[in-house]
Amino acid sequence: MGGGRPILGLLAMFFMAGAVLLIFLTLLGGTSNVIPLNDIYFLQAHTTNIPGAPGVSRWTFWNLCGVDADGKSQCGPSHPAFPLDPPSDRNFNTTANIPSQFIGTSHFFLMTRFMFPFILIGLSFAVGSLFIGLLAPCTRIGSLLSSSLAWIALMFQIISSCLMTAAYVEGRDAFSSNNQEATLGKKAFGFMWTAVACLILSSFLYCLGGVAGRDSGYASRSTRRRGFFGPRRTSSSRSRRNFANGNKDYV
């Protein structure tokens, strides 16, 4: 399996690079009014009947955006860890026509706020795994180190994706129950969960690369000990044989 380590390492790096790219795109969604960043969001809701709100509102990691005639987000100043909290001054600063599920609770606020640090931590480990992965096709230790970082990145990415899914699916249902049309952002959800799949594949491939290197080394050492045609006689066995022959001579 040692010959397969470079292939496993390159495949693992490919999936890790894909995960990093998808996480970056999701993280940067809403930071600029340019394609594709102005089309990446978590939740879209029709908020025409909410005082001071745009006709259609979109939530991202950074802000609450309106939507132009072309269906693209038009976002203002960015604020990190922007929450889904319609009644608060961070969103609409009113309770008029706000779904009752959002009023008097910090449930949505906490879930969407904690997404941000978790995705940053996961992304940092993923980037570290990607760079250390440059050693994976060449060395077993590179594969094992990259695998360890990839597993940690996967854990935080799963937490972020679960928080995102729980918060914004509940938010969509809350708006829908209030007769306000709401939909999930297909790109953001697709990117986040596809990144989870890429991290799983990358983690396993890095592990296989490390195991392949270990098995190859063990096999080569075993071959050297056994010799070409069979077990080699060690110096201790030769000395015992010579000692036995010497005893026969004395007899």
Automatic annotation (TrEMBL):
<feature type="transmembrane region" description="Helical">
    <location>
        <begin position="148"/>
        <end position="169"/>
    </location>
</feature>
<dbReference type="Pfam" id="PF06687">
    <property type="entry name" value="SUR7"/>
</dbReference>
<keyword id="KW-0472">Membrane</keyword>
<feature type="region of interest" description="Disordered">
    <location>
        <begin position="229"/>
        <end position="251"/>
    </location>
</feature>
<feature type="transmembrane region" description="Helical">
    <location>
        <begin position="189"/>
        <end position="212"/>
    </location>
</feature>
<dbReference type="GO" id="GO:0005886">
    <property type="term" value="C:plasma membrane"/>
</dbReference>
<feature type="transmembrane region" description="Helical">
    <location>
        <begin position="114"/>
        <end position="136"/>
    </location>
</feature>
<dbReference type="InterPro" id="IPR009571">
    <property type="entry name" value="SUR7/Rim9-like_fungi"/>
</dbReference>
<dbReference type="GO" id="GO:0030866">
    <property type="term" value="P:cortical actin cytoskeleton organization"/>
</dbReference>
<dbReference type="GO" id="GO:0005938">
    <property type="term" value="C:cell cortex"/>
</dbReference>
<dbReference type="GO" id="GO:0032185">
    <property type="term" value="P:septin cytoskeleton organization"/>
</dbReference>
<keyword id="KW-1133">Transmembrane helix</keyword>
<protein>
    <recommendedName>
        <fullName>Actin cortical patch SUR7/pH-response regulator PalI</fullName>
    </recommendedName>
</protein>
<dbReference type="GO" id="GO:0006897">
    <property type="term" value="P:endocytosis"/>
</dbReference>
<dbReference type="GO" id="GO:0045121">
    <property type="term" value="C:membrane raft"/>
</dbReference>
<keyword id="KW-0812">Transmembrane</keyword>
<feature type="transmembrane region" description="Helical">
    <location>
        <begin position="7"/>
        <end position="28"/>
    </location>
</feature>
<dbReference type="GO" id="GO:0031505">
    <property type="term" value="P:fungal-type cell wall organization"/>
</dbReference>
